[in-house]
Write a structure and sequence with these properties.
101 residues, Cytochrome Bc1 Complex, Chain D, domain 2, elongated, 5 helices, mainly alpha, 2 domains
């Protein structure tokens, strides 16, 4: 085996170990579609502070929060399905609102 082959094999081994470590850390975090939808389509205008301000407290129920998410889906031209609206509503509730009804 040449010196080049030994170096190349050791580099491949190091890269595989690094990739396995990255894969394990990604797999450790469960995928949250609601969070992903929010971050990709809403967060550019609605930073975290929007949900924490006093006015945000107008949302007093999960139904009211869902209605707001559905309204913004239409207003923004997203055309989200009922399941996508539920996912974003769930994410916002877990992250900011903590509503029980």
């Amino acid at each position: 085996m040449t010196a080049f082959e030994r170096v190349t094999r050791s580099h491949v081994a190091v890269m595989l170990v690094a990739l396995l470590g990255i894969s394990a850390s990604v797999a450790a975090e469960p995928f949250d579609r609601g969070q992903t939808l929010y971050e990709n389509h809403c967060q550019s205008c609605h930073e975290d502070w929007v949900h924490k301000r006093e006015q945000a407290r107008v949302v007093g129920s999960l139904d009211a929060l869902r209605a707001r998410v559905a309204g913004w889906s239409v207003h923004s031209g997203l055309g989200w399905s009922a399941e996508e609206i539920d996912d974003v509503t769930g994410y916002l509730n877990r992250r900011f609102y903590k509503l029980t009804n």
